[in-house]
Amino acid sequence: MARGGPTSSFSSPFLSPIKDVAAREEPSYLASSRGAYSSPMFTTKAYAAASATSSLASTTIARREPTEPDVQIEILFCGICHSDLHQVRDEWRGVMPTVYPCVPGHEIVGRVTKVGSAVTKFKLGDLAAVGCMVDSDRTCAECQAGLEQFCRNMTLTYNFPDKHLGGVTYGGYSDSIVVDERFVMRVPSNLKPAGAAPLLCAGITTYSPMRHWGVTAGKKVGVVGLGGLGHMAVKFAHALGAHVVVFTTSPNKREDALRLGADEVVVSRNSNEMKKHAGSFDFILDAVSADHDINAYIDLLRRDGNITLVGAPEKPLAVAAFGLIFGRRSLSGSPIGGIPETQEMLDFCGTHNITSDVEVIPIQKVNEAYDRLVKSDVKYRFSIDMASLKSA
Ligand SMILES: NC(=O)c1ccc[n+]([C@@H]2O[C@H](COP(=O)([O-])OP(=O)(O)OC[C@H]3O[C@@H](n4cnc5c(N)ncnc54)[C@H](OP(=O)(O)O)[C@@H]3O)[C@@H](O)[C@H]2O)c1
Ligand SMILES: [Zn+2]
Ligand SMILES: [Zn+2]
């Protein structure tokens, strides 16, 4: 994969535009772009966007036949992450431009239907999960440390160069997926699959920074934005014993926030309510998908407090230097989580009986769901029942 972003000397795949994948025109995706690759393949149903302005629609894609370490999974549920929407609409074009057709989806739970000869962790019929990554080089220091999300040769589940078939990877809005077992997780049997699917992105993306920044009992933790990520953050922070304050722009989410585990709820458009918390937080997780004033939250941190961005808005946020300087506060970001930590998070959810609050929809409602997501109108994650794809 020859990628080197002209905009940055840091060669993270997140910052380096995909240059080596040409957009393809064949509606079936099976013709010329796959011609140079010899992997045996099969076809499966999927939902794809043909351009940044088109709706998602039914189509057929190719998957590789499982090779020795691979697991083939019949997808039962796939969550809808706001990242799917950012990517389908090419809102991250400056960082990771979308290659069309695009089949999104990286919150996948399903049943194992086939295993390669070298597979040891899974057998037919097992419940299995796939998140945001499907491969990495396994040899670099990050991979050795189980931090595959930082591997420079990591492969995201969709819109990333597909090493097996050429073109780009296709995600979970699909009947089935084939993934190396190293990137497949086990799902605790007490978790319902529809609510477990969003754990694979919304779950790990909020769990990982909380573990990293030491969220425990006695800490005051803020969660900004009560959406898919935010509501999981509330559940985790509460389960870890912290005092949890939710910041929302939606006053009608107050009762839900308390039910989900918040100790206090602040409507962030009310500056008096905000001021009461000045200089008091150990940690704030910002899970907002759109432009907003982050300085208002930096001011709420105590000395050495940290605010971590997991939300990835289209446009850069303006940061006032003095907000960080006074109080030696820090601002950081965090991407998803490594494979071992994702399994740890799923097991934590099994122990604490944590799943996502989902609105289950058929795939035919996916475009409507995207429109609702933009309006913050979801409680609190859409989970697509993939059985509906059979009639699409
Ligand atoms: N770092 C990572 O690895 C990673 C992984 C997954 C997702 N993400 C990103 O995280 C963000 C959130 O994803 P999600 O799936 O949780 O999205 P979501 O369900 O749409 O939630 C976003 C929430 O942000 C708040 N919000 C929306 N527009 C706002 C505005 N203009 N001003 C202030 N608040 C606003 C809303 O909460 P209230 O109604 O409570 O205000 C909304 O529910 C997205 O940008 C996504 O791409 C990052
Ligand atoms: Zn996601
Ligand atoms: Zn690596």
- Rg of Cα set: 20 Å
Helix count, per DSSP? Answer: 11
Unreliable stretches: 1-35
Query: CA-to-CA gap between the ends?
Result: 35 Å
Enumerate the distinct ligands: NADP nicotinamide-adenine-dinucleotide phosphate, zinc ion
Number of strands: 17
Topology diagram in text:
Layout: E1 41-49, E2 56-64, E3 70-80, H1 82-88, E4 108-115, E5 127-130, E6 133-135, H2 141-144, E7 155-156, E8 176-180, E9 185-186, H3 193-196, H4 202-212, E10 220-224, H5 228-239, E11 243-248, H6 254-260, E12 264-267, H7 271-275, E13 281-286, H8 295-298, E14 301-309, H9 321-325, E15 330-333, H10 339-352, E16 358-362, H11 366-374, E17 381-385
Parallel strand pairs: 10-11, 10-13, 11-12, 13-14, 14-15, 16-17
Antiparallel strand pairs: 1-2, 3-4, 3-8, 3-17, 4-5, 5-9, 6-7
